[in-house]
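Could you help me review a protein record that somebody else here produced? Here is the record exactly as it was handed to me:
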Amino acid sequence: SSTLSPVQPLNAILFLNPDLLEDAAQADRLRKQGIVLGPLHGIPFLVKGSFPIKDMPLSGGVTAWRNVISNKDTWAVEKLRQAGAIVMGQANMDNWASSATSSTSQIAGTVRSAYLQGALPGGSSGGSGVSAGAYLTNFTFGGETGGSIRNPGDRNGVVAYKVSGGSISVNGIIPLVPERDVIGPMARSAKDNAIIRDVVGAKDPNDPWAPILPLLEAQRPVPQTGFSSTAESYSLAGKRLGVIGTYVGLTHPNPGTGATTNTTGVQTTTPATKALIDRMMTEVRAAGATIDYVFMPPEVSTTYNRGTQAPQLQLNNTPYSNQVAAYVYRSVIENAIGRPDFTYSQNAAKVLETAALTTNISAARRAMMYNFDATSGAYTPGEAISFDSPAGNEHYRARAQQKDAFEAWMDAEGLDAVIWPMWPNKTRTGGTIIGRDLVNFMHLPAVTVPIGRLTQVATSTLAEGEEPLTMNITGRLYDDAKVLGVARAYEKIKPYRYSPTLAPAISGESFDFKRQAKKPYVRDFKAPVLTASMTATWGRNNTLILTGSVADASGVDRLDVSVAGSLIPAVVEGNTWKAVLPAEAAANAFLATASSVDIIVLAVDPAGNATSVSVDVIL
């Protein structure tokens, strides 16, 4: 059919803000009084499920973390609220931001495309992309390590803006690879993105990136304001842009020897994609710009290594990445569950307890979360380290040298920005995302802008249909305003963005919204801390019987039992509880996890205090 059926939801939303309507009403009251908080007053937005929102879950899409409640907003949410924006809640995402192409969470399921049945929605910020593209909200925020803002932006036909490294604080946001993690807005125009960037651009001293910004700012400082005015007045006349030839299927004229594939290798490109790029080039020339195919020289290394410009060291294969990840994970969990009346050791113990809730997550990720000293604030080699450690400085100096070589090539070519298609060979369910090394390893700014539609052929079960294609615009580090300016100038030529076909707006649409979410308790830090225990035994007919005790002076508000990431019903009677996993479900759990399975019990009291216990049951 032409629209999604009721059994095929977009699944783009993870959690709604239970105070959403009250916040909107307050914005209306202020406006009636002549009070406008900022340029986004009354505008609703969503953030990725890895972003902290005060008194809302910080889950990363994972079931076992859905009752981890944030103590405060992350930086971007705080600044957006101050500018009058209304946080709707959190968008669905891939579990722990693990995929760059799809978005499936344990909590809300698989995000679906609003443009084409069976098409990928993009990941890991797929819910953010779909929500912006399908008009579920005015704008969203995603997070990116290797394309997770721009890829959903492309798949959902929106202008997705990946900022330069360290430009917007990521403090408190669940990380993937902290040394590359950034966040950025996703909106339906470059104009909106520039306005949003003006609001959130100030520097946060608590940002993990803050200590190494002086090193990264050697060529130009991190801009904090002026994005909107620059983007709106930007003209393509007299500018020089370059389409990277190898990224659209053209052979490098001088590939050299020992060059990396990402620098000189030819990317397979469909004729339809190449035709849209050629049309874009014609339009840009008509606007007064010079645009040609350009080729990066072999010595501009875009792979994740030191290249020939610094001592060889594959940093992603050394303890450094895990050590930094451990440091950032600790700060994330402390931001969410830290108690001011606890000592460092007590808070560290709570960090370990919360980290232990991860289920169905890779051993490498769990190692990151545990890889720090839980009893003291002093870190030693092999434990957690911050960005400004000696290893961190060495790492970022090497990254800067690679970036400098790329920018020197841009200078020699007289380029204001470089361009390529986000997917040169996109299909419904795959394709190649290119330029990730160039953008993410060098921390460069990038933005996607729609340039047309691609027709995807019919399959045995799916009809022929169209989905958007975007171009990626990239510039020098911290030259974000120019990148947004190029995007804004192009969308003024012809806005190729179109509304989704599977979830169109309904004329005269109205509905009654009833608040269903339970507002979390305001924490009372004097409340007692829960204690809990658990025993797992095999019963008759291969059922798995889980029993335990739970006690708290103020009572138990909720008790959840999670087996291999799935919740099972539990009964609490007094200070004891019991849950039974049927034989078929037990068999499925062990089938999914080989010979053993993690069982987690999470208990929460009315004040929001929580504790957990876990056992590893062996078949």
Observations:
- Confidence is low (pLDDT under 50) at residues 306-317, 376-381.
